[in-house]
Amino acid sequence: NENINKMLDTFIKSIVVKNSKYSKYKICDNKKIIENLNNKNTKKVTQKDKPQKTKVDNNIKKEVEANPIIEYNKYIFGSYPQTLVKDNAIIEKLNKLAGKLPSKHTSRSWINYNYYAKSKIENYMWYKDITYNNKKYRGVYFKKYRPRYCSYKSSSTFSKQNDNGYSTNTIYWFSYDPIEWDILEQSHGKALIIANLILDSQEYYPYANNYELSSIRKWLNDNFYNTAFNDLQKNSIEATEVDNSASSTGDSSNPYVCNNTKDKIFLLSCKEVTTYYNSDSKRQAKGTDYAKCQNLKVSYESSTLGNSYWWLRSPYHTYSFGAYKIEWDGGIDFTNVSYTSCGIRPACYINY
Hints:
Structural class: alpha+beta
Helix content: 10-25%
Low-confidence stretches: 10-29, 40-64
Number of helices: 9
Order of helices and strands: HHHEEHEEEEEEEEHHEEEHHHEEEEE
């Protein structure tokens, strides 16, 4: 059908976002990327038997879901809970759909975050994903505040949730929004990307600064990976050997380095972050509403207003419980690995 072929050709070559919310993203002007995408898409839709109209539309939808939207040095790829819902009508409907609330003794249909308090996992904070009007949302509910260190007791004094405007015994809803990624490098159909915003707030590891064994590495390649990407998108993410040597930490020697790891999602190292972001200002980052609800520490100082810390994977060289992080001002420092108020900017290699 001539009309279907024209539609398909225009759709693939444009690679634009239909949602008006993201209309700022322009047509991709990278000829090499467009050529690669066109070749890939042509192979998938050029068949002897002409597909029916509905089948072609489904193929287009799958291609757009699988491949990143490209805007100059940015990717739009995957989705994650980010923006706080403020529409009371939507909140009321979502609260009804959520059903009965969880408690210390039963999570019901909610999922326990398994967060720490007083050095042990407790039942006090849960989440639930709901789709309403073809839009996905995540509800967050907690009976106690998440402490800023895993060893601390639960208290508003020891938590950043209350500072960020989130209180106990209230359901907060966050919309799943497309993730925007910075492109750090790209060549031969492969790109290294990192989330433009701080998407979450998690401890590095309650016990030591060993990245290979860390809870944050497990969280990135399980919780985050399975939440942010569908099966088609996962096929575009490449498993990578991650360098965890002493040189990657920026130190001439480091007794706390671990073996290299094979990961799909990872944190940047000290060496990588200074290579790709070569100034303090470029390393500064802000967090999403969802990350703030998870206990992210936010700066209220005028010079760094709204900025937050974010983790690197590199262990600190003189302290077995220390790992490097980016400060509010973009500088590099370290903190205790059990600190829960430090943000996460996931990174990965993607094939396009």
